[in-house]
Specification:
This protein has three helices and seven strands, in the order βααββββββα. It is an alpha+beta fold. The chain has a seven-stranded antiparallel beta sheet with strand order 1-7-6-5-4-3-2, covered by helices on one side.
Amino acid sequence: MIARISTYLPCSEGELWAKIIDPKSLQFVSSPILKFIPVGKNSFDKEWELNRDYVLKLYLFGFLPLGNHTIRLINIDRSENKIESTESGLLARVWNHTILFQETEENRVHYTDIIEIRAGLLTPLIWSFAHLFYRHRQRRWRKLLRI
């Protein structure tokens, strides 16, 4: 199943790129619903890197363990304002995420999350969760961009 959630963010494309390329932003926009903790040598100390597996411990509400979640960025295209990742975890064997954005007017960006979810019988439930979670993330993006 595919989930597509869009919003407008109060920023320029450049301001969004400055935040979105920083893995620490994932922690902020996901909180407090999901918490990602890097495993082993994985670190959130520098920009996201292409074709690198980021293995993360995933927690619901910061304390309920959901197993490991792996993120691999396969495309970071600044000219198209597009980021694509292949992801997987304990509950969803496929959680592929595409981020698209475009400045529609000065300091106003149309932002879209597209998530492909495959989780067997749990797919409809996880698809519903994704809609709620990404709406939350987009609200948190607005807050992060004001900081």
